[in-house]
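During the first year of the project, the team set up a workflow for recording each protein of interest as an amino acid sequence followed immediately by a discrete structure-token representation. This format lets reviewers and collaborators read both layers of information side by side without switching files. As required by the reporting guidelines, we include two representative entries from the current panel. The first entry is reproduced here exactly as it appears in our internal archive.
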Amino acid sequence: MNPTDYELQVGVLLRGCRLKAGLSLNGVQEKSGGKWKAGTVGSYERGQRGLTLGTFHELATWYGVKVVDLLPDALEAQVGAAIVNAIEARMRDGSTHE
């Protein structure tokens, strides 16, 4: 079974959390005391293995992020809001060109 685009996007966000923490896949396994196996986390990141809601919540908590922060739609909304805020700030400041 091929991963869906959504699963791939979740995997990219999971990988981003891991990299932001400065961890390799083996580092996750070591730091978690073996709770999170390198191969399993890697398969989540590649979208090759499904996550139950419980596991998704546990892994997000372990990374120190909220589940909602790992949802692609939430990321798109955050990026969109940041762009709108930046445009509005420029308009308030009167600068419309870079």
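The second entry, processed by the same pipeline in the following quarter, appears below.
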Amino acid sequence: MPTVAHVGLLLLTLDLPACNSLKDKRRVLSSLLSRIRREMHISAAEVGLHDRHRSSVVAFALLSGARAQVERLRDRIERFVEGEPRLVVVEREWTWL
């Protein structure tokens, strides 16, 4: 039986309306990404809009032998991020790799 790996990339564009400096933004994103990495055991990083203190693009790499597991993780990440009161998800991009 062949080995199968399902890999997905989730990009979320975020608005951080309460952040008044890059330091504020870094604090919010660091906390969020650390919690996601720790609780869900996935790769997560800020990948865009580094120089804007009220916007960000974050990426999540998901990998599993089961496609359904990747989809469940994606949904869980989206709910987790949407539950963060200090930010708003303004755009989502999902890609199977």
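For the second entry, the following points were noted during internal review. The chain has a mean pLDDT of 95. The helical segments are 22-40, 67-82. Both points are flagged for discussion at the upcoming steering committee meeting.
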